[in-house]
Every structure is written in structure tokens, then in C-alpha cells.
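REQUEST ID: PR-0412
SUBMITTED BY: lab tech R.K.
PRIORITY: routine
TASK: structure prediction, single protein chain
INPUT:
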Amino acid sequence: MATTRVTVLAGGVGGARFTRGLLAHLEREDPDAQVTVVVNTGDDLWLDGLRVCPDLDTVMYTLGGVIGEQGWGRAGETARVSAELHAYGLGWDWFTLGDLDLGTHIARTELLRSGLPLSAVTARLCERWQPGAALIPMSDDPAETHVEVEIDGQVRLIHFEEWWVRYRASVPARRFVQVGVESARPAPGVLEAITRADVVLLPPSNPVVSVGTILGVPGVREAMRSTTAPVIGVSPILGGAPVRGMADACLSAIGVETSAAAVALHYGSRTAGGLLDGWLVDTVDGDALGRLRQAGIAARALPLLMSDDTATAAIVEAALALARGTGPAR
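STATUS: complete
OUTPUT:
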């Protein structure tokens, strides 16, 4: 029997936790399976002379077993270096990098400056943590997400992390601008991971600035539409609210209702030129099943809160079962 090839398009915390559950499930049920995670790099930025890749690091640390208790950064962190930098008036006092985390950023920056592309650097960093999956940035080219906002009567374009962390998305986003995405190329292996997969999964990552940014890289959306693998998504919205984070503020900015059904319809059914073959919603959103099925999206309702490994395993099993039931993409 051929080895199962599973490709995941992921942002940070939600995508990382889902993938950890996926790997645990496959270790029991299909130990020869190969998992590739295409990770959003729209949150990447230069800070204090270092290249910081929040989502790549969150996925790497989570799968490597060293993620911080808050869901990002390293476990057991201290922040002495950031405190020193802030004392010199450098960096952002609202965006603190831990000392252990800084080691990763220093290593990444040195490797980038040696001439390696981000995908090769990521593979090098993963040699230490052995995440159990191939992690690929969506692109080796910079494609940063910025947010147009109005602050003190002035319209400004700020980095997504400033809007997300400093302002906690409290300043309404007028629009999102993926600076450089039009000219970005998919990193080596990205398109192949999608078109040659047996299953493609969209975990409960932000549909606008995580999965949406990956889909903005030229060629990725087309690969998603053309792959013969079933494409199954997991709703990041439960009962009209995000599982975590502020996806509602992002959805509002692009005119999409904050609901499980609306997000699925935003991705669209592949039978109508969209991306999805199947979609999981929480039991609280079970009344959306008929609407989704009518739109050509196979759907199932079950508890989607990833409260522990057992709960996450059940979500993974349901996603893979739904993929088996949808059959080859049409």
C-alpha cells in the first residue's frame, strides 16, 4: 500500500496544535505516512537586526515539544536580552522576544546572510527539533502582511504584528496588504506537496492572514484547485466566534461574516471553482450542514475545541474520514 502523503496549510498556534494531533494519529494508524506543512510567512519581519518568522517557529517548537505555555515562543523563557535592548531604546517594548527564541532568530539570520534561502534555513533549524514533518515556508521571497488602519485621524500602513500584538486588532482594519506577494514564488516543494498529496488539510488557522496569505502566493490557489487530493478544512469559528485570536476582526475587514458556514463559502466548493471538498464544523454550528452540502461541500459536525490531545485526535480522525468519503476531486 502506498504511503499516505498529507499536506497541511498552516498558520501559527491553531495549525501547529492540529498538526501535532495529526502526527500523533498517524503514528498509531499509518506510521509510514509523510506529512508536509506549508507555513505562512506573511507575519515575518526584521526586528533588532534579526529575521523573525513567528508562524514557522510556532509550528517548529510545537512539533519539537518545546513550545511555550502561552502557545508561542520557547518553554522556560527569560527576557533579559530584550529588556537590555529596550533600555537602549531599540525594538518594540510590546513585542518581547525571549532569550532562547532569540537564539533561533540569530541562527536563522546568520544562515540567511550566508546565502541560504529561507526553505533551506528552515530545514537546517528543524534538524535540531525533529518535528516529524517537513516544514516548508510558503515562499523564500519576502511577502509580509501589512494592515491599513486609521490612527489619530491619519491613514497608515503598519505591519500585521503591530496591529495584532500592539493594538490587539482593536483598531479596525481598512484592508490587508500582502506586500511583495504578487512577485513571490512558491518555495521549492510547495506546489508538489499540494498536487502530489493524498489529502490536503486546512486546519483551524486564520482564513484571512494565515491560510489566505499562503493562497495569495502565485500558483498556490491553482495547485489547490487542480490537485486530485480531497481538500478538507476545519472551521476556526465556533458559534460565531474565533476559537482563539481575532479572526473575526480579519473577516470583518474583508466583508465575510464570522460564522463557520461563511468561512467555508469564502473558500468555496471545488465543484464551483473554489477550494474545498469537505468542511468540519462544531456541533454548535450543526444547522450550517445543509447549507454547506447544498453548496457542494461535504460537511460534518463534531466538537472542534482542541482542549487536549484526545479531542484533537478526534478532529483529525473526522477530517481524514471525511477525506476518504469525498473521493478524488472532481
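NOTES: The first strand starts at residue 5 and ends at 10.
REVIEWED BY: pending
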